Amino acid sequence: MQIGTHILKNKLIVAPMAGVTDRPFRQLCKIMGAGMAVSEMVSSNSLLWGSPKTQRRANHEGEVSPISVQIAGADPKMLAAAARYNVENGAQIIDINMGCPAKKICNVMAGSALLQDEKLVERILEAVVKAVEIPVTLKNSHRLGQTT
Ligand SMILES: Cc1cc2nc3c(=O)[nH]c(=O)nc-3n(C[C@H](O)[C@H](O)[C@H](O)COP(=O)(O)O)c2cc1C
Predict the structure, then answer these.
(1) Which string of b and e fits 3-36 if b means at least 16 CB within 10 Å?
(2) Three-class secondary structure assignment of the chain
(3) Is the CB of 100 under 6 A from ligand 1?
(4) Which of 17, 24, 28, 73 is the most buried (most CB within 10 A)?
(5) Is 95 in the pocket of ligand 1 (CB under 6 A)?
(6) Interval between CA 76 and ligand 1 midpoint (Å)
(7) Cα separations (Å) of 107 from 30, 44, 49, 81?
(8) CA–CA distance, 137 with 97 (Å, rounded to integer)
């Protein structure tokens, strides 16, 4: 499997999971055979980037390639800025969260809820792809309306 210039050793990808897929967990998954492991979501709200939690999430020191960072939000410009911020911090692939079914995320029109507005999805994809030189992936795995 290939994503941009990154050739994965297999198709086993660990899904982004807030509170689970932190850097040590991703390292462990990769060492134990995963082809890729996606980060916990990083908010596109730049006001949060200075917080210890977001700074920890943006640290990729010593991480095995490919480093895939998930960003979450609903505003194309903010998501584009978040993509650039994470590339500056070492991201090699940017993943956009359109598959988080959590009510906390859907209630602010992010995650799976974004899929209800196709025009907005188009604007987000255009803005993020234009903002960075690296591959952009979009993560969804749930049917619309299915929230947990
Ligand atoms: C604890 C937990 C945290 C999650 N956090 C995220 C997240 O940050 N971003 C995201 O896109 N999905 C998130 N998800 C959804 C998962 O990536 C995945 O889509 C979901 O668990 C369905 O996969 P499964 O059917 O194999 O469980 C999370 C799921 C769990 C259980």
Answers:
(1) beebeeeeeebbebbbeebebebbeebbeeebbb
(2) CEECCEECCCCCEECCCCCCCCHHHHHHHHHCCCCEEEEEEEECCHHHCCCHHHHHHCCCCCCCCCCEEEEECCCHHHHHHHHHHHHHCCCCEEEEECCCCCHHHHCCCCHHHHHHCHHHHHHHHHHHHHHCCCCEEEECCCCCCCCC
(3) yes
(4) 73
(5) no
(6) 22
(7) 33, 16, 21, 22
(8) 9
- Mean pLDDT value across the chain: 89
Cis peptide before 66 (omega within 30 of 0): yes
Q: What are phi and psi of 68, to 5 degrees?
A: -105, 125
Is it the case that residue 100 has pLDDT exceeding 80?
Answer: no
For residue range 52-95, what is the model confidence (pLDDT) as tens digits? Answer: 888 888 889 989 999 999 999 999 999 999 999 999 999 999 99
Kindly state the tokens that stand for 14. 């660990």
Please state, in angstroms and rounded to a whole number, the distance separating the CA atoms of residues 70 and 57: 10
